[in-house]
Amino acid sequence: MSETEDRKAASRPDAPIDAQIDDGAQVFFDQMRDAVPAGQSDADIAPSLNDAKPPKPHYHGHRQRLRERFLKGGANALADYELLELLLCMAMPRGDVKPLAKSLIAQFGSFANVLAARPEDLQKAKGLGEAGIAAIKIAEASAQYLARERAMELPVLASWEQLIDYCRVRLGHRKTEELHLLFLDRKNRLIADECHQTGTVDHTPVYPREVIKRALELHASAIILVHNHPSGDATPSRGDIDMTRKIVEAAKAMEIIIHDHIIISQAGYNSFKTLGLI
User: Fold this and answer.
1) Which of 115, 104, 106 is closest to 75 using CA atoms?
2) What b/e sequence results for 52-82 when a residue is b if at least 16 CB atoms lie within 10 Å of its CB, and e otherwise?
């Protein structure tokens, strides 16, 4: 048989159409014909097939439910990871952020620790981009700003609880020691809160002369020293006590009052004045 005859035999143009279709394809076409209502063609039903909507994701409506619970019951109505999830939703408008929120809580230990985490540490979290990091740091800055404003509403010594709350928000979750100076005017109102020195996990160098110099520049009449203990133990060390006494002596010469030295940790705080160390 010639090549031309062989091709003709293979194509079998005289064979019925159904015989040229394999069994699986034949079943498919039969089902499609049966699915077309009488009086309609395949073209009539094509638009309905194209208009089929994809199934909704499993988290559909979850964000709205979270918002409603928060607006009705406040932060206490949500778990820590849900509060973080709601925050991330504003920066990441699509997708399910619940796994990311849970992962961040597990990695950093708490909602507050996530807010206080350094941007460079947050960048290492898988799935968290620049928008999410910015949202987290904005939330931290907002909390600090609110606490500071409340602390400034009244003379500091008359609003001690607000002052402690502010110090906890400001320093309670820091991973290295920082010494902050709260400068007060003659009415004991807060003029400025400045980070004077940053140290290691357990030590911050302090120079009394620089502390007094800055107080004079701001025309401050009094100072409250505040520093943190990342270890979690707010007990004053021997070095803390010696450094405080040197600053008190230098301040007396310039008629500046050292009201207190507060040590902040995640577990609590200690006051030198309460302990009788000032």
Assistant:
1) 115
2) eeeeeeeeeebbeebeeebeeeeeeebebbb
Residue 114 token pair: 């996530």
Decide: 211 and 181 in contact? Cβ < 8 Å: yes
Q: Which residues fall within 8 angstroms of residue 114, CB to CB, at 6 or more apart?
A: 84, 104, 105, 108, 122, 136
Q: Which residue has the tokens 């207190």?
A: 260
Phi-psi region of 93 (alpha: psi -120 to 50; beta: other; left: phi over 0): alpha
The amino acid at residue 266 is Q
Q: Is the pTM of this model over 0.70?
A: no
Tokens 């309905």 found at: 48
What number of helices (H) and strands (E) belong to the chain?
Answer: 12, 5
Where does the chain show beta strands of DSSP type E? 178-184, 190-198, 222-228, 257-264, 269-271
CB 127, CB 146: distance < 8 Å: no
In single-letter form, the type of residue at position 19 comes to A
Per-residue pLDDT, 10 = 45
pLDDT digits (tens, 9 = 90+) for 19-50: 444 444 454 445 555 554 555 555 554 455 45
